[in-house]
Amino acid sequence: MTDVEELLAQLIRIPSVNPRGRAEPAETPLAEFIADWARAHGLTATLHEVLDGRKNVLVTLPGESAETILLETHLDTVETEGMTVEPFEPTVVDGLLYGRGSCDAKGPLAVFLTAMADLAASGEPRPHTITLAGVVDEEHVYRGVLGLREAGVTTTGPVIGAVIGEPTSLRMVTAHKGCMRCRITARGPGGHSSEPWGRTNAIATAARIVDYLTDEYAPSLDAQARPLVGPPSLAVTMLSGGTGPNVLPESATLTIDRRTVAGEDPHAVWRDLREKLLARWPAGVEIAEPHIVDYALETSADAPFVQAVARVLAAAGQNPEPKGVGHGTDASKIAWDDIPCVVFGPGAIAQAHTPAEFVPLSELNAARGVIDALLRQSIA
């Protein structure tokens, strides 16, 4: 096995399942392993608690310039229930390495670490300082990358560009959507189901709201299409209501997932949607404030850092054209600090979170070559 394959196998063996809000130091054993591994390979490493004993890890390789390239990816994985492969015992079959996190996102983590260690050992000039941030909680509510910002990693010092490690099939992703998720509740007086006349049925109201959202509101978003990612979207993703088969429901609640594009503020999107719904249903409908928001990413292809990544990809025989995706990443939070961001890594998003998660070893090693070359670039 190559060094990046061996390290990825070690990372998979350390469980780091996101605890979804429970007070558990879920990612910390992995962060501590990374810190020890980095120090053993000539790098400096520090641990930073975010909450509940959960720690981000920062690995640094000083360069000739204080200008910094930031490599960022997440330590946490999704759950393992229902997996059809051993989640924490990596196996290789037909050139595919299986295990939880192999694709999302311990593959990029292994790529970043081994590339930094190789550069440290080479004795070659290092044009820029390199910082790797392994953060917690990306799979839940992004507290790791927010903690990174609070620690000043993205707000102090000249960060000239960031690569966010996620599965992109070796494409350079420069744009992705954000989201606004909220709950909409229709209410009624309830009562006995044998006497429904003259009573507002909360489920019937919810059904009419679903029709409005899918047949009128969602199609109206097409006019806001952006390059690479297309238009915003809305999907009704959950519905609950009622207490019994012979009881008129007093409430019915919808959960919606509204995907945003660059230029949209998720909170403004919520206010606009609330206004439209209350105009149609001025009584008996409540629109809760968003329980999850995330921001869209749109990095200019003209940014010198993006152009440097494109040159490296082209030299490696990979597609250098910018790409957009519909899902979110930590990149949008890092971009708040005017840092040009690209998302890049081995494996496909279609394999992330799956029962038989895997990463192709050919892509893992190709990604390692791309990051190796990028860290040796002098970026104007």
Features of this protein?
single chain; 380 residues; alpha+beta; Aminopeptidase; Alpha-Beta Plaits; 2 domains; six-stranded mixed β-sheet; five-stranded antiparallel β-sheet; 9 helices; 19 strands; 26% strand; elongated
CATH architecture grouping of the largest domain: 3-Layer(aba) Sandwich
User: Topology as H/E string?
Assistant: HHEEEEEHEHEEEEHEEEHEEEHEHEEH
- The percent range for strand residues is 25-35%
Please tally the helical runs, counting DSSP H or I stretches of 4 or more residues. 9
Could you tell me the CATH topology label of the largest domain: Aminopeptidase
CATH superfamily of the largest domain: Zn peptidases
Inertia-based shape: elongated
Largest sheet: 6 strands, mixed
Structure overview:
- By secondary structure, the chain is α+β, with helices and mostly antiparallel strands.
- The chain folds into two domains: 3-176 and 296-375, Zn peptidases (Aminopeptidase); 178-291, Alpha-Beta Plaits (2-Layer Sandwich).
- It is 30% helix and 26% strand.
- It contains nine helices and 19 strands.
- The protein has helices at residues 3-12, 28-40, 106-122, 143-150, 202-220, 266-280, 304-315, 331-334, 361-375; strands at 44-51, 54-61, 68-74, 91-93, 96-98, 129-135, 159-165, 172-176, 178-187, 191-192, 233-241, 247-248, 251-260, 285-287, 292-294, 297-298, 322-325, 341-344, 358-360.
- It has a six-stranded mixed sheet, sandwiched between helices.
- A hairpin with a 2-residue loop joins strand 1 (44-51) and strand 2.
- Helix 1 crosses helix 3, helix 3 (106-122) packs across helix 9 and helix 7 packs across helix 9 (361-375).
- The longest helix has 19 residues, at 202-220.
- The model has no long low-confidence stretch (mean pLDDT 97).
- It comes from Actinoalloteichus fjordicus.
- Keywords: Hydrolase, Metal-binding.
- GO terms for molecular function: acetylornithine deacetylase activity; metal ion binding.
